[in-house]
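Exercise 7.
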Amino acid sequence: MVRRLRRTESTARAALALVHVELDRRYEYIPGLVLASAETVGRDLVSTVSGARALAMRVREENLDLCQQAGAESALSAALQSLLGTARCYPALRHDWAFVRPAGELELTEERLAGAVRVYNDLARRLNHAVCTPPTSVVARFVGVKPAQLFEATILTVSGAPEDDVADAAA
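Solution. The predicted structure, written as tokens, is:
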């Protein structure tokens, strides 16, 4: 029972690390997208994405709880979706490699991020169930295994559809 608890806790930590890797990848591609689309779509839409990125990075740097991080990331996803949807209406951008490459990478990253969040939340729920139900709750308390926070936000894909199994929270 102890090994199972520790393994679930360790796997949940690894899944959260994967979520952070995908977030870092997303942060990396946003400046290229912003530069490529700034002149065409307008500064207001681009500044929304830049501001949401800065906020999300700041919330993560300050090690705030996962709910606050998820809210900031959800706001960034919504801003990206808006920018990409608007930018795709411009024929010049659809054929500009400086826009197409980061946009494509961001689409893939958003899908991987949604999957990573789903896996982490499933593992966190499993750990929380084990920590809160007898007899494992007694063992968990004895060995110091604590419940995990869920990454609660709607991660929107670039197509605009919210991912299933990801709890929604106000962003």
